[in-house]
Amino acid sequence: MSKLAISWYRVKLDVMNVSLTAELETVIEGKVKSGLYNNASEVVRDALRRAFCPPQSLDLEEDTPELAALIREGAKSRHTPHRKGDVRRLLEQFRQRSRA
Fold first, then answer.
1. 3-state secondary structure (DSSP) of residue 100
2. Cβ proximity of 7 and 18 under 8 Å
3. Which pairs from 13-17 meet CB under 8 Å and 24+ separation?
């Protein structure tokens, strides 16, 4: 097992050492290498928040009215739902037309 130092701020800086399995360490290192997080502490803090803190509700109309308007506009618009293979068929039709 490896050790990971986790820091958080209260009145002063406290350090907590946590033992991790090699698998968890690999997961954390992968998240940091992906660029989603700046360091291992951010990964652990995010994981703990997701595991133990209730999600904050989002009221689109109140919090992001512009996004809510775009979603309403998109829902009302005329669109064609696509199924698996549609893009492949369209590409094949395009290729056939371009050969003619």
1. coil
2. no
3. none
Tokens at 43, concatenated: 């990964």
Q: Is residue 87 part of a domain?
A: no
Instruction: Please name every residue paired with 16 in a beta bridge, in sequence order, or none if there are none.
Output: 6
Q: What are the structure tokens assigned to 55, written together? A: 């999600």
User: pLDDT tens digits for 45-65?
Assistant: 999 998 998 877 778 788 788
Q: Compute the distance between CA of residue 40 and CA of residue 84 in angstroms, rounded to an integer.
A: 38
4 in a domain, yes or no? yes
Give me the helices (H) in 1-100, please.
Answer: 22-34, 40-52, 60-63, 65-76, 86-99
The pTM (predicted TM-score) of the whole model is: 0.47
Range of the domain at 32: 1-78
- Closest listed residue to residue 28, CA positions, set 46, 40, 42: 40
Q: Does 89 reside within a domain?
A: no
User: Structural domain tally of the chain?
Assistant: 1
